[in-house]
Design brief:
four-stranded antiparallel β-sheet, zinc, alpha+beta, 62% helix, 10 helices, single chain
Length: 264
């Protein structure tokens, strides 16, 4: 600013004045200007540095917070207990029954704590009544079975169904291991059972060859089949078909009477 203004030029010339007093005053004025400019620049740099530091610190804090929160949520969800959630419930005055309530709470581990503890209490009460208000071996075995299946990482639908009420407490407590299995496990078991049935019954049942079926895998029509009663006596027989070309096999639950007579 002083370099661009005439006053700066005038004062600069006065420093070489023949008058000692004028020269001295001019030098002191220039020196004072330089000091003031230096202080202002230092203050500006310091403020800028502090502001940048605060922005960096805040940015670092914000970027690290979700990760930390995510870790806590993951850990909490995997290890929820009545104690960790600091949730109270009315004791049954029976240590085994209270232990069952807390085990059911941890095994489900989903949803609002108040709803979760209600589900756990209802499950225990249902089991206690089912086994004649006894905490004997049958009661304990059922508790272990429920806990194992509810905790299963491969069957989240069971836990979710209990929490949402889609699976009632009464239904849950009467389910066996097969009932509680995930849909994927049920499909796998059905497929294995069908394959075992094909192998066991196919060898001993009279098989015939036909071109009335088309294989969905290779589109061929050369097939063998056999029939057997897999449902009630008044239901149509089930036809088991095997493709001669690729070995694919499938079953036909019901057939038109005319087609059935033709095959027979």
């Amino acid at each position: 600013i002083f370099q661009q203004a005439d006053i700066g030029k005038v004062v600069g010339k006065l420093r070489s004045s023949q008058d000692v007093n004028v020269s001295q005053k001019a030098k002191e004025t220039v020196k004072k200007w330089k000091q003031d400019v230096g202080v202002n620049e230092a203050t500006s740099k310091s403020a800028s540095s502090a502001s940048s530091s605060r922005r960096t610190s805040t940015s670092s804090l914000l970027s690290s917070s979700p990760s930390s929160s995510s870790r806590r949520s993951s850990t909490d969800a995997a290890n929820r207990t009545v104690q960790s959630d600091d949730i109270g419930y009315t004791s049954t005055d029976s240590a085994p029954r209270d232990k069952t309530i807390e085990l059911m709470y941890s095994s489900i581990g989903l949803g609002n704590a108040n709803l979760l503890v209600k589900r756990a209490i209802d499950i225990e009460k249902q089991l206690f009544d089912m086994y004649d208000q006894s905490v004997g071996e049958e009661y304990k075995a059922k508790v272990r079975s429920l806990a194992l299946n509810l905790k299963s990482k491969t069957n989240p639908a069971l836990r979710e169904g209990v929490v949402t009420g889609e699976i009632s407490i009464a239904t849950l407590c009467t389910m066996n291991v097969e009932d509680m299995a995930s849909e994927e496990a049920k499909q796998r078991d059905r497929k294995l059972a069908e394959e075992a049935l094909f192998k066991a019954r196919g060898a001993e049942s009279a098989q015939a060859e036909t071109d009335m079926f088309r294989c969905a895998k290779c589109r061929g029509r050369k097939c063998t089949y056999f029939q057997m009663q897999t449902r009630s006596a008044d239901e149509p027989m089930t036809t088991f078909v095997t493709c001669v070309n690729c070995g694919n096999h499938w079953k036909v639950q019901a057939m038109h009477a005319e087609t059935n007579r033709t095959l027979c």
